[in-house]
Amino acid sequence: MAAITMRNVVKQYGDGFPAVNDINLDIADGEFVILVGPSGCGKSTLLRMIVGLEDITSGDLFIGDTRVNEKAPRDRNLAMVFQNYALYPHLTVFENIAFPLRLQKLDDAEIERRVHGAAELLELVEHLGRKPANLSGGQRQRVAMGRAIVRQAQAFLFDEPLSNLDAKLRGQMRTEIARLQKRLGITTVYVTHDQVEAMTLGDRVAVLRKGILQQVASPRELYREPVNLFVAGFIGSPPMNFIPAVVSAGELNTPFGAMRLPDSRSPELDGKDIVLLGARPESFDDAAIVSDAVRDHGVTFEANIDVIEWLGNEQYAYVPYEAPDDIRDQLADLERELDSEALRTQLVVGLDTASQIAENSTASLWLDLRQVHVFDPVSGFNMTARDVNVDESAGATAV
Amino acid sequence: MDERTTLRQKALWWIAGAAVLIYALFPVAWIVSLSFKSAADLGNRQFLPADAVLDNYEMILVGDAQTLFLSALRNSIGIAVIATFLAVLLSTFCAYAIARLEFPGKKVILTTALAVAIFPVISIVTPLFNLWRHIGLYDTWPGVIIPYLSLTLPISIWTLSAFFRQIPWELEQAAQVDGATTWQAFRRVIVPLATPGVFTTAIISFFIAWNDFVYGISLTSTEAARPVPAALAFFTGASQFEDPAGAIAAAAVIVTIPVVVLVLLFQRRIVSGLTQGAVKG
Ligand SMILES: Nc1ncnc2c1ncn2[C@@H]1O[C@H](COP(=O)(O)OP(=O)(O)OP(=O)(O)O)[C@@H](O)[C@H]1O
Ligand SMILES: [Mg+2]
User: What is the pLDDT of residues A352-393, one digit of tens each?
Assistant: First the structure.
């Protein structure tokens, strides 16, 4: 077991493309860190550099106290589950799991004992004699896990291990991985696309965009205090709403009327003409059922409800609106980058399930201004995030 | 409904399979039957010999044609094995490079290999004949092996590089992460996956070398290097006026045996789909 430390790590592929750019990241011993980001942002590349399959163009990588940049994968003693499992097709499940142990030249009884231990944990005992080709996707995934956990590695590296499983199995395996990691207490880096995995599994989440680390924080902090537009839009489902607002005399003029932010949420707006207000769906509610105690903390406005989605434990209302062209283009760019494809500027509003608002109607909505973020549309920075600068250095996580 | 279609499909498959089998095996059965006919029996216009005799086998193995046949058999086996071994060795290196490495001229190698394969044998055999006589390769084993390589190498390179491209090479990296050295990763993971392809290629090139006639007859003149297919043409009957068909048939049966044995022996090695299940999707 060991900590993993990255100092100004850069990866340039042969064509000069910087897939990973100047990453600084401290992963403590025993910590579970999640790596998220859109497709192609360099997650796999980063993981492969840690494990030693990809040369590090510049910067330093430490495992424990040792600099390992030049070490071969086998000298780093890390266990990895590949994005595509990478099982050995000519070997049985038993031999697949035993492979790293055979290379360590352990005696047969010890190998037998350890493989059976892993197989029991992963419920693979009855499949030990079979070949990978005859297994289901979930079983293969567990074999890959088994191969990683039989050895006493310094750290686990997972590259989207659950991405090919169906929703139910994915849920099962997710809890299994969390339990396993807690039990073994091994440093873990886990790459995922999945919001739920990102928010539930890790101690900390690192958000990557085009090879650049955006923010590293606990899931809670990431959700509540995203440092920029990208993180705000990436974390959370449905995503945060971004509403353009014109700054005038201390007020913000939005398509839904003028809003005056509370002191706690008022950044320095001097010299800014336009800002983007960020509000999560659950910051809204049906004005009719907001309790009087909190009503004053927010603003009430009229809106045309287009569609209502009722999901049982929650419901969402969609509110289309007009925005200036340049802002709309910027929002469209952001959404494209986030892999989402909203075709129009619209609000997604979370409503209490008790709300009686109907589709295609005009309703009175309430927005909790205490939970609103203000973003600079040019730089994308969150101007309301609690001291962005302090955040940057805290936990040695540069932006 | 579903079951009926599958049943009908099955029946159709069986019929089609049987038809192909009969079509392919009938000449073989005929030759086998011919090899057991006595000289008088050859023209009896019947499929089965009137009286099965071993005369023909006797003749080529211990009788008049013995020297001709046994030396030809020895030449055939030696030449085919060496040509196959060389072709597999060279094409394994070549295909590995083509599948794994990026280098200029990769396309050129593949197209050249194909061009060589397309080039008609008959058009190079005459110049080769002259050249071999000048440099002393005429009627020697190397003199036959070298042109055989021109037949076996292109097809070996093509099949092997197609095969190597399908090997999930990431497994090599997985093995390294699991603690293997580069050599261990290659030997424990890549070699087992590549072996079936190498065996398939070996069998194909052995057949090509084993069956060749044109080079065999044109580039040899004595028992020093003449392979079986060429030697068959020199068989004569017991007298000049007797039909050597029986002896030829017996020789044909005998030269088929190594081929059958080879296939049966290596059949289990050519496990198709061995690379399945390595990666998801
Ligand atoms: N061998 C390579 N040569 C050149 N560029 C590469 C190579 N491998 C990856 N890249 C580039 O590096 C970038 C990051 O790739 P990477 O595989 O790390 O993405 P990822 O975040 O893992 O994406 P995904 O979520 O789709 O797996 C991509 O833009 C990709 O095009
Ligand atoms: Mg990836």
Answer: 988 888 889 999 999 999 999 999 888 889 998 765 444 443
Q: Is any ligand 1 atom within 6 A of the Cβ of residue A21?
A: no
Mean pLDDT taken over chain B: 86
A86 torsion bin: left (phi>0), alpha (psi -120 to 50), beta (else): left
Domain end, chosen from A174, A194, A223, is at: A223
Report the gap between the CA of B99 and the closest CA in chain A (Å): 19
Which of A177, A194, A223 terminates a domain? The answer is A223
Chain A: closest CA distance from residue B192 (Å):
7
Answer yes or no: do B189 and A87 touch at CB < 8 A.
Answer: no
Give CA–CA dist B247/B69, Å, rounded: 10
Candidate of A41, A82, A84 to mutate for ligand 1, largest count of ligand atoms within 8 Å of Cβ? A41
- Does B11 fall in a domain? no
The encoded tokens of residue A392 equal: 């940057």
Q: Is residue B41, in this structure, part of any structural domain at all?
A: no
The domain that contains B164 carries what CATH number? 1.10.3720.10
| Look-up of token digits 């072709």 | B87
Query: pLDDT digit string (tens) for B97-126?
Result: 998 888 898 889 889 988 888 888 888 899
**ipTM, interface predicted TM-score of the complex:** 0.79
* Same-domain status, A216 and A257: no
Q: Ligand 1 centroid to B191 CA: how many Å? A: 28
What are the Cα distances from residue A6, in Å, to A61, A68, A318?
Answer: 5, 11, 43
CATH of residue A120: 3.40.50.300
Determine whether the interchain pair B171/A147 forms a contact, defined as Cβ–Cβ distance below 8 Å: no
- Domain range for A320: 241-387
Q: Tell whether pTM > 0.80.
A: no
